[in-house]
Structures are given as C-alpha cells and as structure tokens.
Fold this protein.
Amino acid sequence: MKQLVLGVILLIGIAIGAYFLLSPSPEILEQDQTPPIQNTPTTQNNENENTNASTSTDETSQNDGETLIGSSVEERPIIAYHYGEGETEILFIGGIHGGYSWNTTLVAYELMEYLEENEENIPENLRVTVVPVLNPDGLNKVLGTTERFSPSSVPSDETTRITGRFNAQNVDLNRNFDCDWQSSGTWQNRTVSGGSKAFSEPESQALRDYVIEQKPKAVVAWYSAAGGVFSSNCHNGILPETKALTDEFAKASGYKAYENFDFYSITGDMVNWLAKNGTPAISVLLTNHQDIEWSKNKAGVEAILEYYAE
C-alpha cells in the first residue's frame, strides 16, 4: 500500500514538471499576444506630406521679412518687404505704373537696399514696409523681369514703355481705387480704363486688403514725372497729418510741395482713396521718367522716419 502511494506521488511530480518544462514563459506569451507591426498606410504618409507642404507655403506667404499680399492678373507675386520691428508701420509703394514709370520701382529697390544696410537708422518704434512693384505685369511687359534691373536695359521706345503703364487687362491701376472712380479715366490728354468697377483688379485689391488689415500710420507712393510732393484728398479736406507729411518730405528733399494734383482731372486715385479712409498719404512724383533722384528721396525718407520716431 505504501509503495502504491509513493508511486502515485512520483507520477504526479513527473506530470507537474513536464507541464512547467513544456509551457511557454510569461515573456513569450506576452510577445505572442502583441499584434504584428503594420506598415503605415500610404494615405497617412500623404497627409503628413500635405501638412508639411501647407506649413511651408504659409511661411513663404508671410514671415518676418516679407509678405505675399496678392498676385497680378498673370499671377505674378506682389510682395511687401519689412524692415524694423516696431509696431508703427510706414508704407512705401513703387511701380503702380509698371514699365512706364520704371524709375519708381528702382527708387523703391534703392530704399530696400538702404534699409538692409542701415538697420540702425530705423527707429525702434517703426516697421518700414516697401512694396517695390505694385504692377508686376506692366513692369515685366517692358523689362522682362520684376526683379531689380539696370536702367540700361530699359527700351528706348516710348510706345513700348507706355504699354507697360497698364496691367495685363489694360487697366490703369491708379484709376481703379474708390475715390471718384469712373470706368473711363484721364491720363494727360488720353482716355484710359479704370476697370469695370472700383477694385476690379487683383493688384488694387491686394493693396486695399493689406492697408485695411495692417492699418499703416502713413503711406508714401512714388510716381513720375512732375517733380513734387502732393497731398492726398478725397473731398474731405487734407488731413493735418498728410499736410505734415507733405511739408516734411518736401523740405528735406527739395521737391516743391503741392496741396493737390490739379494738372488734369484724376479719378480712382490710390492715395486719394487712402485719404478717404483716413490714412495720411502723399504722392512723390520724380522729376522725369529716367532718374531715381536717390539723394533727394533718401533725405525725404529719413525725414519721415524721424518725424514718426518716438
């Protein structure tokens, strides 16, 4: 009987040992229960790539140094370049008449170079913004570029240059703003298109939207050619700040100051629209269509920055 009991116990011990010997360890069980690793679906990879591309585009559209404010009829970029880190913005504009008044673009590019090389001259409270080419299609039509160019590359034929005054829809952008707008405007003794309505053109829309959003303290726009500084006004009188701007720029530059442009009737004018909306603005007309008169304009710009410095 004793031997039988010992035999049973021995058999039970062998069975238990075999169970533990043949059973998988807890670690092996845990690994077996882990789902197999799956490759990331292709669609998810594409979503990640699209997100990165969107971020990159946003950074291109607006960063600390420049803002893409819009595009022309032919989808050329209209860019605003920024200098200084202050909260008060002073806006300078060139090239509204493209390849016809090409020297207004060059004086704006000259200002950009000056600001890049003399950042210490920008008052701490100011942010200086330059839009060198408001009509890139008109400039490209005459010069074949919207980047900085040499005066020697400008065609001598005046008829060719005149075609570059207008945008790609043959609209005079300085007749497309909302102050006395008319579909047909006047330029010297010619009739020009003011567009189908005020702000019908993407170029004028771009500037309008930027000004409404950013609310610059003052605006200086370059034109050619008459040689003078002209105050803006849209039937509401010259703003006191505009009068001060006119006098400051004229005194420093040596250009003659004018209360308004009255050589012929103007409709849809950009700076007059700015005045209508309460933004102090002046037109600086270069003396001719060839020279940028940088020393005079540099002095005028410095006077404006000093005027707004705190």
Observations:
- The longest strand covers residues 77-83.
